[in-house]
C-alpha cells in the first residue's frame, strides 16, 4: 500500500537494519523487478519510486555475519550519507528541539510553549545516545508533562537515564583500575552536580535539599570538583 502511495515519488524506510529476512527478500524483489503485488490481488503493478533507507546499525557487519542480505545491501548502498551522532553536532539541538516542540504542541493542542534556558542548557550537555529519536521522545513527553507554558528541567528530569557508556568510555577501559575508577567518579560528580544545579538555577540551598545533603557539605563537594554555581544561574532576567 505504501509503495503505491509513493508512486512517482520517494519512500523512506526507517531502521532498515531491523527488517526480517522475509521482508528483506520481498524488498529486494521490488527493487529488482520494479513491481509489487497488492494484497488480495493476483496481478502485479509497476512502481516507479525512489527509496531512502536509514539505520543506526552497521549494515556491512550485519551482512558479513549473515544477518542482512548482501544483494539487498548493495542495491540500497548507492549513495551513502553518514550523519554524525547528535552529540557531535550540538548546534542542531535547539533547532530540532523547537521543531519537535511546535509539532507536539499542535498535536496535543497544548498551546504555545517554550523551553526554559536551564532546560535548553541541559539539552546541550546531554549525550543523546538515542540521537534525534531520543530528543523527539523527550520533547513530546515534556509537552504532556509541563505544568505551564514554560517547560522547565524539573518537568522532565526523569526522562534522562544515563547509560553506563556515558561514564565508561574506551579511554577509561584502557587505564589501570584505580585511575579509571577515579576518572569515572570525577565525571559522575561533575555531571551530577551540573545537572542538579541546572535544575535549581544555581541555588545551592535548593540543590543541597534535593541531593539530601547539608548546604555546607554540598559546597565542599562543589569546590572539590571545581563546579561553579554561577554558570547555572538564569541571567536572562
UniProtKB/TrEMBL annotation:
Sigma-54 factor interaction domain boundaries: 1-144
Superkingdom field: Bacteria
UniProt key word Transport: no
CDD domains: AAA (cd00009)
Molecular function per GO: ATP binding; DNA binding
Keyword Chaperone included in the entry's annotation: no
Matching Gene3D superfamilies: 1.10.8.60, Homeodomain-like (1.10.10.60), P-loop containing nucleotide triphosphate hydrolases (3.40.50.300)
UniProt keyword terms in alphabetical order: Activator, ATP-binding, DNA-binding, Nucleotide-binding, Transcription, Transcription regulation
Pfam families hit by this protein: AAA_lid_14, Sigma54_activat
Biological process, per Gene Ontology: regulation of DNA-templated transcription
Name of the featured protein: Sigma-54-dependent Fis family transcriptional regulator
Record lineage: Bacteria, Pseudomonadati, Thermodesulfobacteriota, Desulfomonilia, Desulfomonilales
